[in-house]
Design a protein that fits this description.
Elements lengths: L4 E5 L4 E2 L2 E5 L9 E4 L6 E3 L8 E5 L13 E5 L15 E10 L19 E8 L8 E10 L2 E9 L6 E6 L3 H4 L6 E8 L4 E6 L2 E2 L2 E3 L24 E4 L15 E9 L5 H11 L1
Antiparallel strand pairs: 1-18, 2-3, 3-4, 4-7, 5-6, 6-18, 7-17, 8-13, 8-18, 9-10, 9-17, 10-11, 11-12, 12-16, 13-14, 14-15
Length: about 280
């Protein structure tokens, strides 16, 4: 899958000129900014064999309205040219290691109500071509579905149009136990409108949250592709990588985040899991 590995972050390659930037080990060369925490966000932890450090993301001031949460990302209002492989793409895969390290979901620092919590926990995603920093083309995260938090794959084929969500059936606390490294993957097929989730290389049972044809893939022309626009960036550990707003922070660690411009097969995802563990 190496030639389809567009962006890959292992959080062991700081930019010598700016340690708050993580160098991309994929083929796009898209540098990732470690927002608000800078180099301190690289912490000694082993997600898998060969790993030495991981990325710590977290909410910093739960009771204060602001945007000081630790997250990572890249954003450009005109699109990120180095991510052009996701322009008009037929499918996407997001894979990585995740470990919950604190309270999730986080208190909503944008609300005056102390009992209000965010309805989502941000993991990793590719922004759409018209994103304001929140809307995505492909995303792996936790969101509230029918009143319950669930691990989901959330995708959008057409910029500005409807998204679709595939939610895991198992409780999220079983999928992501506290202080345990877990390998998650999500695949997005924009031609067939199929999405899948995997935990430690094995498929997760789940369900779609919308009926009908929210991605408008029925009928000609074929194949159906994502919008022909460069993504406006990548978001990790929350929304708004331009750092204008705190939204959906994750108190967790991440390692070996991979973004591919193809739909990885179940066998490839299982092989990747066993390759590193």
């Amino acid at each position: 899958m190496r030639r389809h590995l567009i962006a890959h972050y292992d959080f062991e390659h700081p930019d010598p000129a700016n340690p708050a930037t993580e160098r991309d080990q994929g083929r796009s060369g898209t540098g990732l900014t470690l927002i608000n925490g800078g180099p301190a966000m690289r912490v000694p932890d082993r997600a898998h064999r060969g790993s030495r450090t991981a990325l710590q993301v977290q909410q910093v001031s739960p009771a204060t309205a602001g945007n000081d949460d630790w997250k990572a990302g890249v954003y450009s209002p005109t699109g990120v040219p180095s991510l052009r492989a996701f322009n008009g793409v037929r499918g996407v895969t997001i894979m990585g290691w995740f470990k919950m390290t604190g309270q999730n979901p986080s208190p909503n620092s944008n609300s005056a109500n102390p009992d209000d919590f965010y309805g989502a926990i941000g993991l990793a995603g590719i922004l759409s071509g018209t994103s304001q920093g929140h809307d995505v083309r492909a995303l792996l995260e936790l969101i509230t579905v029918n009143g319950e938090m669930r691990v989901v794959a959330l995708g959008r084929r057409v910029d500005g149009a409807s998204s679709q969500t595939f939610a895991a059936s198992r409780p999220w606390q079983e999928i992501l136990p506290q202080n345990e490294w877990v390998f998650l993957a999500a695949t997005f097929d924009y031609d067939t409108a199929a999405m899948r989730l995997y935990r430690n290389g094995r498929p997760l049972d789940g369900f779609y949250t919308l009926t009908g044809d929210p991605w408008t893939v029925e009928g000609p022309p074929e194949p159906d592709l994502a919008s022909p626009s460069d993504p406006r960036g990548i978001k990790i550990g929350g929304s708004y990588p331009q750092n204008t707003r705190e939204n959906n922070p994750c108190n967790c660690r991440m390692d070996s985040l991979m973004f591919l411009d193809r739909i990885a097969t179940p066998g490839q995802i299982l092989a990747q899991y066993y390759l590193v563990r």
